[in-house]
Every structure is written in structure tokens, then in C-alpha cells.
From TrEMBL:
Transmembrane segments: 27-52
UniProt name for this protein: Glycosyltransferase family 92 protein
Organism: Lotharella oceanica
GO MF term list: glycosyltransferase activity
Keywords for this protein: Membrane, Transmembrane, Transmembrane helix
Length: 428
């Protein structure tokens, strides 16, 4: 009886030990699986496979071969493409296109955002000579009106029918445009380095020391996969109504230092886009961009990194290249565009009477034909007397505008310490 009881206890203990061992192995297996899942997710996100395989972005294109980013093979050229969306910009479109040509842009992809039946001049008709030569191609952007896209997939919903918390998972039509062209140019960049850049029609690059192509080639030779360029806003320059002549000559007063940026990215290095960042591509991963925090989508972080590369991003120095943003133009034009919604549906107020335009910069005139400069030159603002008179005239025009402005715009004028405006527009 004792022997039988001992065998029973021994069997029970053995079974318990086996059970405990299996439990331990299961726990260990679960931990290993969890670690593998986390590591795998990080690798997937950081390699761009998240965009390729989860969002449906060109899944086969990862197999394409592209030239090394830092290749200096003279047989492999740098090809520059600018992508833009235009709406009611016929007045400035010709100058904008001419400027892209003058700085060395090889091809322009335009999306016409003017609805059919509008009073705007037909973009196809206005730019016919460029279209026929193949320099410009024009697509319809109105097909995406009032729509949002689930990341880069083809799934669409009516704009703003989702909670703001879900915003990071939706793209607007401006990003849809960029994703569409990225897919296309990835297939066309095996034998050349294709640089993709996104601009608005009120934005113009200003290469200062070298050509745009030379700057991009140098950035690539250093290991850069994308280039960030600081964006400087230019003000009304004292013009109440649209003046005659071109934008680059008429508007030379600007903010002292830009707070935002845009740039170019190598099509073969792009892995996707971040929601809410319509001006730049991601060339590492959405996870790396979110966690790294060194080059957020809109805010310029290159002040302390001029000419350096961080995580594949080349921060172009201000004396090498800047982006001129002619957002306001004349006071009348600025006022007429108050509270005009962006493609993502958000409404942005333009500060027409802002006092931040305290600098004079005429350097972009080196890209303007001499006969169109109105007697100015790229070095005009280097003359102290000219600079002083230009800023004085701009401030006088600003104050005159503020005293006569309608109430919605007057608030932007109140940031001047020497000017306070009553309801009857009389200065205190």
C-alpha cells in the first residue's frame, strides 16, 4: 500500500513538473514571438515595406534596380521634376513656368484645380506651347474634390467624415497627386536620378551660389536622399493693388528667417508620405520620421545643420538656395483670398498686414531677364539707401492698408506696436 501510494505521488509530481515545464516553454515562446513581432514591425516600418505592402503602394517596384544614390557616374544624369496644383493662377502661371525653366527644371507636372465652367483661363490653352513641346503635362485635379484617401490606397471617403483623431490615416488630394507621380517616376528612374519636388504657383526656388542641378548632385554625392530648403515669405511690398510687371521684381520685402521648408527627394529613395505634410516625401519611413523628430514635415530644422546630412536629409544653407513664397502679393489680392480653404478642407487666414516683412532680398533677380527687372539687380538690396527706402515705402503702404481695411483683416494689423486702429479706422 505504501509502495502504491508512493508511485501515485511520484506520478503526480512528474505530471506536475511536465505541466510546469510546458507552461514555462509556452511563456518563453510567447515572449520570443512578441519580441519577434515588435522587431519585425520596426524593420518593416523602417524599411518602407509598410507603405509598399500595407497601403498598396507599388508593391512590385521595390524589386527595381536604381543607381546608387551617391553615384557620380557621368552617364547617369540628375533629372528634376516639379509637381504643382494650380487654381485661379492664370495671371502668374507664365512667369512661374518661365522661372522653372531658367533654374534648370527638366519637367513640370501640373494639376488643374479649376472646375469646368469656371471663368479662369484654360490652362491647356494658356500653356499650349509648353504642352506641345512636352515640357509640361496637365492633369485634372477636380476628380478628387471633397475626397480624402485612406493613406495611399484607392479607398476614398467624403472629406471630413472622420474624427480628427484619425487624421494621420488620411491623405488629401494634394498628397494623392504626389503619390500618383511617385509611383510613376519610380519606374522611370533606373538609369537616372529623378528628383521630385512639390511647389505651389506662388513659390519659386532661388538657387544662389550654383545651379539647382549642381546643388542636388552635390547633396546626392554626400549621401543625401532628400534636400530641405528653407521657405521665406515675401510681403505686399506696399502695393495696394496688383502692380504691372513680374512678381519677382515687384515683391522683394520678406521675413527675416523662414520657419517652414520644402525640398526635393530622389524618387528611388522615397518610401511614402506623412499625413498632413503635402510638401515633402519621406525617404526613410513613417516610423523613423515620427520618432526621430529632426525634420518634421513643415518646420525648418536646418538652422544649426547648414550643409550637413542627417538621416539622409541634406539641409541646404541659406546662401546656397532658398524658396521664395509670394503668399500675399498685393493687399487687395491678399484680402480677396482670406479664408480660402486648402485642398485638405482647412481654412487658413493670410496675415496681409503683418509687420514681419522687415528684410529686403532681390537675389532672385539673377534669374529674371534684364529687360524685366525695372532697373533693379540681384544686388539692389545690398545698397543701404535702396534697402532703407524700400522698407519705408512698404511700411507706409502697410499702415495705409490697415487704416482702411475691413474688420476681418484689421486684427492682423494690430501687431504693430506703433499702430492701433479703432472701429472708425482712425489711429490713436
Amino acid at each position: 500500500g505504501i509502495l502504491s501510494g508512493w508511485k501515485s505521488l511520484h506520478g503526480l509530481a512528474r505530471a506536475s513538473w511536465i505541466g510546469f515545464s510546458l507552461f514555462r516553454y509556452n511563456i518563453a515562446l510567447m515572449l520570443i514571438s512578441a519580441v519577434a513581432l515588435v522587431v519585425g514591425s520596426i524593420v518593416t516600418l523602417s524599411s518602407g515595406l509598410f507603405f509598399y505592402h500595407v497601403t498598396g503602394l507599388a508593391p512590385g517596384e521595390i524589386l527595381y534596380t536604381h543607381p546608387p544614390y551617391d553615384s557620380l557616374d557621368p552617364n547617369i544624369t540628375d533629372y528634376i521634376v516639379v509637381i504643382a496644383m494650380a487654381k485661379n493662377e492664370s495671371r502668374y502661371l507664365d512667369e512661374w513656368v518661365s522661372h522653372q525653366q531658367s533654374i534648370g527644371v527638366d519637367h513640370i507636372v501640373l494639376y488643374d484645380d479649376n472646375p469646368s465652367g469656371s471663368n479662369s483661363v484654360s490652362m491647356q490653352k494658356q500653356l499650349r506651347k509648353y504642352v506641345e513641346s512636352g515640357y509640361i503635362e496637365i492633369h485634372d485635379a477636380t476628380q478628387w474634390d471633397n475626397k480624402s484617401f485612406v493613406l495611399a490606397s484607392g479607398i476614398t471617403i467624403q472629406q471630413r467624415l472622420y474624427h480628427p483623431f484619425l487624421q494621420p490615416f488620411f491623405f488629401d488630394k494634394q498628397q494623392k497627386m504626389l503619390i500618383e507621380q511617385w509611383r510613376r517616376y519610380q519606374k522611370l528612374s533606373q538609369n537616372r536620378h529623378v528628383w521630385l519636388g512639390q511647389l505651389d504657383i506662388d513659390e519659386m526656388y532661388n538657387p544662389k551660389s550654383d545651379s539647382l542641378r549642381t546643388m542636388l548632385r552635390r547633396a546626392r554625392s554626400l549621401g543625401g536622399r532628400s534636400v530641405r530648403v528653407v521657405k521665406q515669405e515675401f510681403g505686399p511690398n506696399g502695393h495696394r493693388a496688383p502692380p504691372k510687371g513680374n512678381v519677382r521684381t515687384n515683391y522683394i520685402t520678406c521675413e527675416k528667417s523662414g520657419e517652414q521648408h520644402t525640398g526635393f527627394s530622389l524618387a528611388s529613395a522615397i518610401t511614402g508620405m506623412a499625413s498632413g505634410c503635402p510638401h515633402i516625401y519621406v525617404t526613410s519611413s513613417i516610423a523613423a520620421d515620427a520618432l526621430r523628430g529632426t525634420h518634421e514635415c513643415n518646420h525648418w530644422k536646418g538652422e544649426d545643420l547648414p550643409g550637413e546630412i542627417r538621416n539622409g536629409v541634406y539641409y541646404a544653407p541659406r546662401d546656397e538656395i532658398t524658396l521664395h513664397h509670394y503668399q500675399t502679393k498685393s493687399f487687395e489680392e491678399c484680402s480677396s483670398r482670406q479664408r480660402v480653404p486648402h485642398p485638405d478642407g482647412k481654412v487658413v487666414t493670410r496675415h496681409c498686414g503683418s509687420v514681419k516683412y522687415t528684410e529686403c532680398d532681390s537675389s532672385i533677380l539673377r534669374h529674371v531677364p534684364e529687360m524685366e527687372r525695372n532697373g533693379l539687380s540681384a544686388s539692389s538690396c545690398s545698397n543701404p539707401k535702396f534697402r532703407r527706402e524700400t522698407l519705408k515705402r512698404a511700411e507706409e503702404g502697410r499702415i495705409s492698408f490697415c487704416l482702411k481695411a475691413d474688420d476681418p483683416v484689421v486684427e492682423a494689423c494690430l501687431d504693430h506696436p506703433g499702430l492701433r486702429v479703432r472701429a472708425d479706422k482712425v489711429p490713436l
